[in-house]
Specification:
The complex is a heterotetramer of chains A (105), B (769), C (542) and D (511).
Chain A: H1 9-29, H2 33-58, H3 62-92
Chain B: H1 3-25, H2 34-58, E1 65-78, E2 82-93, H3 94-117, H4 124-143, H5 147-165, H6 172-203, H7 208-216, H8 224-241, H9 250-253, H10 259-268, H11 270-280, H12 287-310, H13 314-334, H14 338-365, H15 378-381, H16 383-397, H17 403-421, H18 429-453, H19 464-477, H20 495-506, H21 524-528, H22 543-576, H23 581-598, H24 600-615, H25 617-639, H26 646-652, H27 654-661, H28 666-692, H29 698-707, H30 721-737, H31 745-768
Helix pairs in contact in B: 1-2, 1-4, 2-3, 3-4, 3-10, 3-14, 3-20, 4-5, 5-6, 6-8, 7-23, 8-11, 8-12, 10-14, 11-13, 11-14, 12-13, 12-18, 12-27, 13-14, 13-17, 13-18, 14-16, 14-17, 14-20, 16-18, 16-20, 17-18, 17-24, 17-25, 18-25, 22-23, 26-27, 29-30
Chain D: H1 7-22, H2 25-44, H3 51-71, E1 76-78, E2 83-85, H4 87-109, H5 112-116, H6 123-139, H7 143-161, H8 168-199, H9 204-213, H10 218-236, H11 244-251, H12 254-279, H13 295-314, H14 320-341, H15 344-375, H16 386-389, H17 391-405, H18 411-425, H19 431-457, H20 472-490, H21 493-502
Antiparallel strand pairs in D: 1-2
The chains are: A mainly alpha (105), B mainly alpha (769), C mainly alpha (542), D mainly alpha (511).
Chain lengths: 105, 769, 542, 511
């Protein structure tokens, strides 16, 4: 197995960068509110990966702690978000984010 | 304070009192209070007569002069100048005394005359009030000892003339005339005002004596051109008031006023004030200025005479003759015939007042018929008027044994002398014009006499509608003679209108002024009024004499520092303590005498002119007499014996005839240039104001209105000038920016990222490079 | 004393606040009483004022208050600002020759304004509250000696004016009101920056702190050498001067910032026009004399020529525009643009004659223009039109009115014997005596002629001649056989009634008296203006 | 891989926790209040009586006492540098509690709630929660705390915005707020992670020292800081992070709008100052310019953009709430001007401006609510002729708007005066900024005056004479707010001193 490159910090960072990109992409392009919110979750998780990776390579527990809190927050956010989206669906009979633009300019 | 001063102050204030009383209470007083006016003027005349007596008859001294002044405005300790005051004051010398008596006398006579002429007018009381304020302001001019107060009273006579010309303000012609008169005078006044400013800016004083003393001492810092300019600008005031070319246009129209007013203001006194003022400032006039003045006077005399020939309105003829005679006076001053000019001023005042009042009597008798073509044969009906009118006419024409003869000849002699002294050439134009105008004067006055008094009455010849309209015209403002409209018989006027005529006619005879009917110079007047030594000798403008002048000036200044200092201390002390005035006056005189030493040049010139004019005395007499007789006979030939038919002649020389009849088209020219011009400019500017300034870009305002679809309608208003432009740009930027707010949350996110990324790239590049 | 005269109207306003809005008469009387009390105080100040003390600035050795009178100086705000030392604001009132005349003028005009507001029927309560607020603010501007305080009063004027024009104005009032507001605010906000800059550049010689005191600012010795507006910082000083000047020039109003004035006047109700022309315009030139020039003397000296040219433009441009107007009120508005030009010219002269003339012209223009606008209001009340061509021959039917109009008109065209003449004459004397503005003065003299032209022309068209066929009134032959005039839906007296006379006669008397004997006013201002001129003249020339 | 802490360490940890708790009383108190409110709600069965609101008021008022006791305590860090107690924090604690109280008051005045929702249930609890969150935002010294507190505020804000469940605008606002907030906070966290990667620290001060001691990769730091700024910018609603603001402000219940536009904006500024003064300093005598980037230029850009954009776009608004939303964006720009100065005076000016903004903005929204109660509309046209019908409201609103413009003698003028003074103390360096501020405030005059213009200069189309009197209590409150706005406009000494007191962070005085 010596030909395998050991996984280093940069790999983690690359992955998190990709996650961030995917997240933003989802937020920007998806019509479905649920998917948009998933995109947000992806962004948070990208941050999590960073934290954990950094705390592994730079030492210190701070990163891990941070990531735990981020996970919790993400959960809470998801809850609130779903409540709101459901309410939206009740009123607009759709969860198409791009169609909800009664207030503008 | 000298007793004469006190008296003169009383004289000055009495007419003002009459004005105040009459303007407020005339409706409460019996007869609208005309007796108040007459009584007060009587008193004023009595007092000024006394002043005249003391000054002229008792102290028979050409250099007589008393002055008094007080601080009117105190400007405190002015940085760079020190204590600075504006003083008001009174000066009495021979000229003042004579003018005082003349003005009050004529004013009194006019007051008296008006009791008959204006009786029953609905604004009778106001009329007397206006006469009062006029007399007040006129006396103010006469008594002033400084330029500032003269300017003040100058404007005030302008006002009173405005009020009196427009006395029948319901007539549009009168309203136009009064406006025209005031504006024309204003134009002259700003010139005069600038002249005053030039002198003030040098010496920070308005007082004649101080200015002259400083000038004599060569303290005038600006270039000599400025001094000439100052003289000419001051003369502009005279051009306006005395109706000299080019501002003569207002005087004929001023005849819209009541005839007695024309006699008082527009013949005898106010218009003469211009000449009086030039006499007062005579000593600051440089030779160049004097030349200009002489030419203007000569031209005015000639032009007005030519116009007078063809006028049909009896008052207009007299008006133009007034302009012409004023031209004579100005000419006289210009050529340096100082005393002659003033002499003519006085004599002219009397006989011209007589003429106007006479014409007033005629008009009154003819029920406000003013057109000479429809008169004639009045000799039989109104003998008194005829006699006095004729006498005055002779004086105006300048026949021997009359006052006008002496004064006019003195002027003409001066003109000849001037021409010779200046070395002939173009300068001979002045006497020539003078003599020619003398002939024209004789001609048009003869014409007037013949047309009005001789022959048969031509009332019936008048076209009916014209006739009627005439009646209508005055029936609007003179309700008083509606009763005897029907009766058309002409009768002599009542005593209160006759007496003034007689008195004035009597004052047009030679012996009042001089024992010798052929030479006014032997009379008391020309002895009392003598040419003052100029103070601008050291400011010769002729380059040849420049160095010499400067040299003399320097020597003078070096030599006389002590004298000047004493003089100044004297001056200041005089201002601080009026009672010390006599010493101060003496010092001032000494100052003037000193000035004569180093302004020898110009005084030599004056002497030369005087000598030459003395030599030219008898030639002048002969020529003018011939001219006058020529004129009268010509008039006789044309209008009595009908050897030449005037109408045919007019046809023969139609262009000339029209040119004269239409007053050389001056009104038309001015109307086309100045009046229309300024109206045009004002229209343009106000358009500019509303459309350009007030909305720097009109198009912008338009666009904004278009852009402001979402805005409420009031938005388009907030569009104005600079604000306008801002509003526009702001609005449009707003219109663009608000589009960013699409309402779609995802675009928000996109923009957020775009911004972050863009800024990142920006810094990234900055870091790399 | 000064605080009282400043805050009396506001107190009156608070009282009115308590009065139920149905009690119109009480409201009017309350504000009238306040105005009269203000007048009494003004007279007391005038009597007690010592004309020998110059004021303007503090003498180097002398008291920090300078020779100001009725001084009230109370520390107001004192903040610690970390490294920046402290922010000290004082409640600092005082009077010198420049302000005392303006105080009298303000009291007079606001009293007359109240009288002239008597006919206002719409929302009387609100009207008088705003009116009193305005009166207080104006008075405050004239007595404030602390820049901050001055600025507060200055801005305080805008809002009441906005509403007074906007609510009680003519048909086009919204436009005029917001135009006035934006223009003047635009001018004053930049003043704020200059004010702050000055604060950080000036040191109070006594306390050693920064200060807003205009007295300290007027003394160049108190400036920090290289502060933002210190003497070394020439460029910024020029910019600051320009900014201040524009701010004040908009109030004056100076060409080309004048376009708000005609609109504001045409739309505003008569009393507000009176206040606007009588007092507010003076604030601009007062600000120049109090703040703009003495704080930047060298810049002023460098820019006299420009100011003079603008003055000349105002004079002639205003006169020409007035000549073209059909609306009488607009004509008067342009005439006041023209007359304020004289003030600018006199200030530009930079010498005592000119400045005294300018200040005196401010006073006279206040009284005369107030008269003009009142007279315009009189005829507008009756005929509901101001078109000059809609009249004619009025002199026959309204003799008293015509007489007073004649006096006012001639006063406005500067006839000797009436106050306007002396001030204009002094202005010209000064402007001509100073080499800088000599030629400008020679041009400006034309203004005299055109001034006479438009005034006499309007006089003729409205009052002389006979009734025009399309006139705004009818003629009917009365019982006594004379013709009488009859305005549509006007029940009141045809000629001036008592109230109008009580407003006009005092002004006429003042105009005539001050035209004959100006010293009562001039005596108070000369020493101050001479001091000001001394301050303005650079040491090199001094 | 990490060895567990020994017993002794745990002992010491517990001891220091105990110690810290003493400095944590207000937060604890408010948390208890939060729970209490939920309980009360359960007890009251969501009946529409004022029990809840009164309780909230009293509770919040009570918290002031505890905050006041903290003023005497020494400034210092709690919970291992997670949390900090300093004058700056105390200032904002007062600020947020007071804004919470005002929010409750104007909620009580708003009649729209009665029509929109059955029960006020958790509303007040959420308000209190938001107060807690903002207080913690203002006093957190660690990126983790920052994130947590910010999310706490955001979530409560989401819910409050969407509180009118059946109202589409409200819900839409909630959704937009949610998505936008989620993304930007996510980006912020990502930025935090990068900073953590650079420094291996989460505490701001340690970050600062770490950055200055061992170097760093500027590119990464720039990216990180930009991402963080996205989070903060979203809170303060400054251009270009403002896009959520207009929609949310328009859609949310008016009291919530007022609350967000004042309180959460202020919280954002508190964070901004902490982060940019301490973590990534820009320079100045104490904090050397440790990185080659001038953060101030970044902030300057944002503030100019906010001033211009907010004021210019506000010109076009027909809806008063939306108009005020844009004006609040503009005001974010003005406040940033104060932060840019980055010295004691600048901070003091910023805090003072926040105070003035607090007063006048709440006042304005309060009047808007009262008018909406009567007219049922927030459109400009419907304000026509109101000046006569509701004199006091008209006068008060005019005063608040004038104060927002920044004209004397109002508090808003003092705020602007201080800000501009602070700018000018830097000589002519920031003069042009001040100029832009002045210009934009002239522009703002126009749209602010649109409201009095409609109220006074225009006649109302409908002449029906229904009673427009908002009632005694609201009138009193309105009058009080108006009076304060004017009073502090003339006598701002105490507040300015208070702002001065609050301008010290971490106990170390700014130059």
């Amino acid at each position: 197995m010596e030909h395998l490159v050991p996984i280093g910090l940069n790999h983690y960072l690359t992955i998190s960068a990709f996650l961030l990109g995917f997240g933003l992409f989802a937020v920007m392009t998806r019509k479905n509110a649920i998917v948009v919110l998933m995109g947000v979750e992806l962004i948070l998780n990208a941050a999590n990966i960073n934290f954990i990776a950094f705390s592994k390579y730079n030492g210190g527990m701070g990163g891990i702690m941070f990531s735990l809190f981020v996970i919790v927050i993400a959960a809470a956010e998801a809850a609130i978000a779903l409540a709101i989206v459901i309410n939206i669906f009740k009123i607009f009979k759709s969860v198409d984010v791009s169609s909800i633009d009664s207030m503008k300019e | 304070m000298h007793s004469l001063i006190q008296l003169s102050i009383v004289v000055l204030l009495l007419p003002l009192l009459s004005f105040v009383i009459l303007i407020f209470f005339n409706r409460r007083l019996p007869r609208r209070g005309d007796f108040v006016g007459v009584g007060i003027l009587g008193t004023a005349f009595a007092l000024s007569a006394y002043i005249f007596w003391t000054v002229i008859v008792q102290t028979y001294d050409p250099a007589f002069r008393v002055a008094w002044d007080f601080t009117w405005i105190d400007l405190g300790q002015v940085p760079g100048i020190g204590p600075l005051q504006i003083k008001m004051g009174i000066v009495i010398d021979n000229l003042t005394a004579i003018m005082l008596a003349m003005v009050t006398l004529i004013s009194l006579l006019v007051h008296l005359y008006s009791t008959g002429y204006m009786a029953g007018d609905k604004n009778y009381g106001r009329y007397y009030a206006f006469l009062g304020i006029f007399t007040f302001s006129m006396l103010g001019i006469v008594l002033s000892d400084n330029l500032f107060s003269i300017y003040i009273f100058w404007e005030l006579v302008g006002l009173s003339s405005y009020l009196l010309i427009g006395f029948f303000f319901e007539k549009d012609s009168a309203a136009d005339a009064q406006k025209k008169a005031f504006l024309a005078n204003r134009v002259g006044d700003i010139g005069m005002w600038l002249g005053i400013l030039i002198l003030y800016s040098q010496f920070h004083t308005f007082s004649f004596t101080e200015i002259y003393a400083n000038l004599a001492a060569g303290k005038f810092a600006m270039s000599n051109a400025w001094l000439t300019a100052a003289g000419l600008l001051l003369f502009m005031g005279c051009v306006g008031k005395s109706a000299q070319f080019p501002l003569h246009i207002w005087l004929p129209d001023a005849m819209e006023g009541p005839t007695p007013v024309s006699a008082l203001i527009h013949a005898a006194t106010m218009v003469a004030a211009g000449v009086y003022f030039v006499a007062r400032i005579f000593v600051v006039l440089t030779p160049d200025a004097l030349h200009v003045i002489a030419f203007i006077g000569a031209f005015t005399a000639f032009m007005a005479a030519t116009i007078a020939i063809t006028q049909n309105d009896i008052k207009r003829v007299l008006a133009y003759s007034t302009v012409s005679q004023l031209g004579y006076m100005v000419l006289g001053l210009g050529v340096g015939a100082y005393s002659a000019a003033l002499f003519h001023l006085v004599t002219h005042a009397f006989f011209k007042a007589c003429l106007f009042l006479g014409s007033g009597a005629i008009i009154h008798a003819m029920h406000h018929e003013q057109d000479m073509r429809w008169m004639g044969g009045l000799r039989k009906h109104m003998p008194w008027t005829f006699a006095t009118f004729t006498l005055a006419t002779l004086a105006l024409a300048g026949l021997p044994l009359t006052s006008g003869f002496m004064s006019k000849d003195a002027i003409l002699a001066g003109a000849i002398g001037f021409a010779t002294a200046e070395g002939g050439g173009v300068y001979y134009l002045i006497p020539v014009l003078g003599f020619f105008s003398a002939m024209l004067t004789a001609f048009y006055m003869g014409r007037q006499i013949w047309l009005v008094f001789f022959g048969e009455s031509r009332t019936h010849l008048k076209p009916a509608d014209d006739h009627h309209s005439a009646h209508h015209a005055h029936s609007t403002h003179d309700t008083h003679n509606d009763d005897h409209h029907a009766a058309h018989e002409v009768h002599e006027v009542s005593w209160n209108m006759r007496a003034p005529l007689v008195i004035l006619a009597a004052l047009s005879v030679f012996f009042v002024y001089s024992p010798n009917p052929l030479d006014g110079a032997q009379g008391w007047f020309m002895k009392m009024i003598q040419t003052p030594p100029t103070v601008v000798g050291s400011y010769q403008s002729a380059p040849s004499s420049e160095k010499l002048a400067v040299g003399s000036q320097q020597s003078a200044t070096e030599g006389e520092n002590s004298a000047l200092s004493t003089q100044h201390s004297a001056l200041s002390e005089q201002h601080s303590a009026p009672e010390a005035e006599h010493s101060a006056l003496s010092t001032q005189h000494s100052a003037l005498k000193e000035s004569t030493q180093h302004s020898a040049l110009t005084n030599e010139r004056q002497a030369e002119i005087a000598h030459a004019s003395h030599a030219a005395h008898f030639p002048a007499i002969y020529i003018s007499s011939i001219m006058v007789i020529l004129g009268i006979t010509l008039a006789g030939i044309v209008y009595v014996f009908r050897i030449i038919d005037p109408d045919k002649t007019a046809e023969a020389i139609r262009p000339l005839y029209l040119f004269s009849l239409n007053k050389w088209y001056w009104d038309e020219i001015y109307d086309a240039t100045f009046i229309r011009g300024s109206m045009l400019i004002s229209k343009m500017l106000s358009w500019f104001d509303t459309n350009i300034i007030d909305g720097i870009v009109n198009g912008v305002a338009l666009i904004v209105k278009k852009v402001a679809f979402a805005n409420n309608s009031f938005d388009k208003y907030v569009v104005d000038g600079l604000v306008n432009f801002t509003a526009f740009s702001v609005n449009t930027t707003g219109a663009v920016l608000r589009k960013l707010q699409t309402g779609k949350v995802q675009t928000y996110v996109v923009m957020l990222l775009a911004v972050v990324f863009g800024y990142f790239v920006f810094y990234f590049t900055r870091l790399i490079y | 004393m000064l605080s009282l005269i400043v805050f009396l109207p506001i107190i009156a306003g608070l009282i009115i606040l308590a009065v139920p809005s149905s009690q119109k008469q009480i409201i009017r009387i309350v504000s009238l009483l306040a105005a009269l009390a203000q007048g009494v105080l003004a007279v007391l100040i005038w009597r007690a004022y010592d004309p020998s003390l110059p004021g303007i600035t503090a003498a180097p050795g002398g008291s920090p208050l300078g020779s100001f009178q009725f001084v009230e100086k109370v520390p107001w705000i004192g903040l610690k600002l970390g490294a920046m030392g402290s922010l000290n604001i004082e409640y600092f009132l005082g009077v010198d020759g420049i302000s005392v005349t303006m105080i009298i003028l303000t009291a007079l005009i606001s009293a007359i304004g109240v009288l002239s507001s008597w006919t206002i029927q719409k929302q009387v309560k609100g009207y008088f509250i705003l009116y009193n607020l305005l009166a207080s603010a104006m008075m405050g501007c004239f007595v404030a000696l602390d820049f901050f305080l001055f600025y507060v009063f200055w801005e305080l004027m805008l809002l009441p004016m906005y509403f007074l024009i906007g609510i009680w104005g003519g048909p086009n009032r919204e436009y005029a009101a917001i135009k006035f507001f934006l223009y003047t605010l635009f001018g004053s906000v930049f003043m704020l920056l200059v004010m702050i800059g000055l604060y950080f550049s000036v040191i109070d010689p006594v306390t050693g702190n920064h200060t807003f005191s205009l007295v300290a600012m007027a003394n160049q010795a108190n400036y920090l050498q290289d502060a933002i507006l210190g003497p070394h910082n020439v460029m910024w000083r020029y910019i600051a001067f320009a900014v201040l000047f524009v701010g004040f020039a908009i109030k004056v109003p100076m060409f080309p910032f004048h376009t708000w004035l005609p609109d504001a006047h045409v739309e505003a109700p008569t009393p507000i026009s009176v206040i606007l022309a009588g007092v507010l315009l003076k604030l601009g030139t007062y600000g120049m004399m109090r703040i703009n020039f003495p704080l930047f003397p060298e810049v002023f000296h460098a820019s006299m020529y420009v100011i003079g040219i603008f003055g000349a433009i105002n004079i002639i441009y205003g006169a020409f525009c007035a000549l073209a107007q059909q609306d009488l009120k607009k004509m008067v508005a342009y005439s006041s643009i023209s007359h304020m030009g004289y003030v600018l010219l006199g200030l530009a002269a930079g010498n005592s004659e000119g400045m005294i003339g300018a200040l005196y012209q401010m006073f006279n223009h206040g009284t005369i223009t107030a008269m003009l606008f009142l007279l315009v209001g009189v005829i507008y009340d009756r005929a509901h039109t101001r078109q000059i061509d809609k009249f004619g021959g009025l002199a026959s039917y309204m003799p008293v009115y015509a007489a007073i109009v004649t006096v006012a008109w001639f006063a406005s065209l500067g006839l000797p014997g009436l106050s306007g003449f002396i001030s204009e004459a002094l202005v010209f004397v000064g402007a001509f005596s100073s080499i800088t503005t000599r030629y400008i003065a020679m041009v400006s003299v034309l203004g005299i002629v055109f001034g006479a032209a438009y005034l006499l022309w309007s006089l003729q068209r409205m009052f002389l001649g006979k009734r025009k066929p399309d006139a705004a009134y009818d003629l009917e032959v009365g019982a006594d056989g004379h013709e009488h005039i009859h305005f549509h839906d006007w029940k009141g007296k045809i000629d001036l009634d008592g109230r109008e006379l009580t407003m006009l006669v005092p002004l006429v008397v003042i105009t005539i008296f001050l035209g004959i004997y100006p010293m009562p006013v001039l005596g108070m201002i000369t020493s101050s203006v001479n001091k000001l001129v001394e301050v303005l003249t650079p040491l090199a020339i001094r | 891989m990490f060895e567990l802490p020994s017993g002794a360490e745990i002992q010491s940890i517990i001891a220091s926790l105990k110690l810290s708790v003493e400095f944590f009383i207000p937060e604890i108190y408010l948390s208890l209040l939060f729970m209490l409110l939920i309980v009360v709600d359960l007890v009251a069965k969501g009946k529409k009586n004022n029990l809840l609101s009164i309780t909230t008021l009293l509770g919040l008022a009570g918290s002031i006492y505890f905050i006041f006791r903290q003023q005497t305590m020494p400034a210092g860090e709690l919970f291992f540098g997670m949390y900090v107690l300093d004058e700056f924090a105390i200032f904002f604690k007062y600020f947020f509690v007071l804004s919470g109280i005002l929010a409750v008051i104007i909620t009580m005045a708003d009649e729209q709630f009665e029509s929109e929702v059955k029960s006020m249930g958790e509303y007040y609890a959420l308000v209190v929660a938001m107060v807690i969150g903002m207080i913690m935002m203002a006093s957190s010294a660690d990126m983790m705390m920052i994130f947590l507190s910010m999310e706490l505020v955001s979530f409560t804000a989401f819910i409050l915005t969407g509180y009118f469940k059946r109202n589409p605008r409200s819900s839409e606002a909630a959704l937009k707020y949610l998505v936008y907030g989620g993304v930007s906070s996510g980006l912020m966290v990502y930025g935090f992670s990068l900073i953590y990667g650079l420094t291996a620290e989460t505490n701001l001060i340690n970050i600062s020292s770490a950055l200055s001691q061992h170097g760093y990769d500027p590119v990464v730091l720039i990216l990180a800081t930009l991402l963080v700024l996205a989070g903060f910018g979203y809170k303060i609603g400054a251009v270009p992070f403002h896009f959520w603001a207009p929609d949310v402000y328009e859609g949310a219940p008016t009291p919530v709008t007022a609350y967000l536009s004042v309180a959460s904006k202020a919280a954002g500024f508190a964070l901004l100052m902490r982060f940019f003064y301490i973590a990534v300093p820009h320079g100045g005598p104490v904090y050397e310019d440790i990185i080659g980037i001038n953060w101030v230029s970044l902030l300057i850009l944002i503030s100019i953009a906010s001033m211009i954009y907010g004021n210019v776009v506000a010109l076009w608004q027909k809806n008063v709430k939306r108009l005020l939303a844009y004006s609040s964006i503009a005001h974010a720009g003005y406040i940033l001007l104060g932060i840019i100065v980055m010295d004691a005076f600048g901070t003091q000016a910023t805090l003072l401006y926040l105070l003035s903004y607090f007063l006048m903005n709440f006042g304005a929204f309060y009047v808007v609510i009262l008018i909406a109660n009567k007219t049922g509309s927030e459109n400009l046209e419907d304000y026509r002729g109101l000046g006569k019908k509701m004199p006091l409201a008209g006068a008060a609103l005019t005063v608040f708007l004038i104060s927002l413009v920044g004209l004397p003698p109002t508090f808003g003028f003092i705020g602007k005066l201080m800000i501009f003074s602070a700018l000018l103390t830097k000589g002519s360096l920031y003069l042009w900024l001040a100029l832009i501020g002045i210009m934009t405030s002239v522009i703002s005059l126009y749209y602010y005056m649109l409201i009095p213009l409609n109220m006074y200069l225009r006649e109302s189309p409908s002449s029906e004479q229904k009673n427009m009197n908002p009632g005694l209590l609201p009138n009193i409150i309105m009058a009080a707010l108006m009076f304060l706005t004017l009073y502090f406009g003339l006598f701002f000494q105490p507040l300015a001193d208070f702002a001065k007191y609050g301008s010290t962070l971490f106990g170390l005085k700014l130059p």
